[in-house]
Every structure is written in C-alpha cells, then in structure tokens.
Amino acid sequence: xxxxxxxxxxxxxxxxxxxxxxxxxxxxxxxxxxxxxxxxxxxxxxxxxxxxxxxxxxxxxxxxxxxxxxxxxxxxxxxxxxxxxxxxxxxxxxxxxxxxxxxxxxxxxxxxxxxxxxxxxxxxxxxxxxxxxxxxxxxxxxxxxxxxxxxxxxxxxxxxxxxxxxxxxxxxxxxxxxxxxxxxxxxxxxxxxxxxxxxxxxxxxxxxxxxxxxxxxxxxxxxxxxxxxxxxxxxxxxxxxxxxxxxxxxxxxxxxxxxxxxxxxxxxxxxxxxxxxxxxxxxxxxxxxxxxxxxxxxxxxxxxxxxxxxxxxxxxxxxxxxxxxxxxx
Length: 329
Fold this sequence. Notes:
- It contains eleven helices and 16 strands.
- It is elongated.
- It is 31% helix and 26% strand.
- The strands form four sheets. A six-stranded mixed β-sheet has the order 10-11-6-2-1-13. Strands 12-14-15-16 form a four-stranded antiparallel β-sheet. It has a three-stranded mixed β-sheet with strand order 4-3-5, sandwiched between helices.
- It folds into two domains: 2-238, 2-Layer Sandwich (BirA Bifunctional Protein, domain 2); 246-327, Enolase-like, domain 1, CATH 3.30.390.
- Helix 1 (11-24) links the parallel strand 1 (2-3) and strand 2.
- The model has no long low-confidence stretch (mean pLDDT 91).
- Helix 1 crosses helix 7.
- The longest helix has 15 residues, at 194-208.
C-alpha cells in the first residue's frame, strides 16, 4: 500500500486531490490517505445543493459548500472530522465490495477498544449511532472509496447545517438519509486530539498492511490547485450541477405577503419564475419575471440584474435586499 500525506484543510483542494489521484496518478499499489477539512458541507455528485443544506446557517457561520465526485448524501466536515481515502485498480466497478475498504477502518477502531460495527448501509456505527459514512467513484479502471470518521465534530453545527425545509423544493435528485450520529472521542478511554487519533489510525493500519510513503511533486500540487480553482470551487460545479427542480417560498413583509415559485433547469438556470402577493403591481411584474428568466439562480447574479431597477415600482414597500431574502432564504 502507498500512503500519501495530505495536510491541507481546504475542501476544494482536498476533493481535487482525490480526483487527481484517481484519474492522473498511476501507481502500482493501493493508495491510502487521511485528511481533514475546515468547516464545510460536502454534497454528493448527484444531489441538489439548493435542497440539501441550510443556506442561512451555512452563510452565517462561514461554512463552505462543495460537491464531490462520489455519490451518496450530504455530509458535514470540520476540524474534528477525519477523512480516509482508498484508491485501487479494479477491472469492473460492479464486482467491487465497498466492505473491502471499510473493514480495515473498523478493525483499527476495534483494536482501540471501540465497538465499531458495519451497518446495512455500509456505514460504521457505535451502539447504533453513525460515526462514518462512505461513498465511491469509478474511473479509468480505478476505484475511489472514501469516508468520514466523526472524532470530535460539532454535532450541533452538523445537525443545523444539514437541516432543510423539504416542502420548499421539489427535485428528483438523490436525497440524504438522516440518522443519529455520535463522536468517536466519547468512546475512547484516553483524551486524544484529532491529530493523535490520525496517527493512531495510520499506525494501526500500517501494522496490518505495510505501506511506503509517496510524495506528490510540485507539478502534481500545481495541477491539483488548478483543478480546485477551475472545477471544485466554482459555482457551476457546486450549484450548477444540481438536477432540475422547482422551488417556492412565501414571506410576510410589513405591508403584505409575497410568494414566488420557479422552475430551475440543469445548470441552475431559471426556466420560469412567477411572483404572487398583495403588494405586487401585477401590471408590471411580468417585466421582472422576464428579466430573470434564463439567468443563473444565484443571489449575486439576481442582485446585479435588479440593482438599477426601482423595486418599489413592482413590489410595494420592500427593498431589493428584502426581495432577495425571499428568493434565497
């Protein structure tokens, strides 16, 4: 096995790091890596970003949002969560058993006197509570399997960041499956920090599966940063890759209510948008609706389009920022 150290806490770099290893680094053995992200929500490849996160909480707490290349549901990362990655050569994706990569982690936890078990959904649990979820991707006859290890994660932030109002968005995207979670640290007899825990994992795995360390060169790092910048940190990848959906919301303002609904196409582009309410000038509102049609459903884009328009002409007694709070709640 080959161990590649990754000390970055930037989720965009780390997700690019994984894809780069999967697609462009050809080594003769299984690749293994451990890494940590700063506070962030990482959604699955086939998920709807608009639907899966609590945008208000995430924005107020400077939590980053990213999309990974593997399937599955949305997860919360912070500096108390340790991630693992295995990359291995395979002939066919359908013959691979994800347990092959999860069981070594469970074995390590068991050696630390933690009663970790594999669930039916290939999650790792302690006393029925989830401490790890995993997902995989297949490319160029190589399999990437990665997962989380909730060591000392802020569970309150996790629950709030992933708490959404289901009824406001209709989408056929992959939905996250909520479940009760817990931290590994609560089951350890010793007071480890996350870095000590990481070293324990690495030491235990190396005792079972000998490995050699491999270092990425300057060109590798340059290419990973480029991939992070041009793909993983972009709005088009994070939000634009969301499947089509319908969104609606109603908000009460001092002088009345406004309801909006919109059909959003692939690329997060507005196909149709409609406003209703008792503080709308219906003789003019079609102008605003037409103005927003065909545009990216993104706060700054809408703000630039509407900033030079006298909003009160179309929505009585509200400001542009108040209108945006209805659309991007």
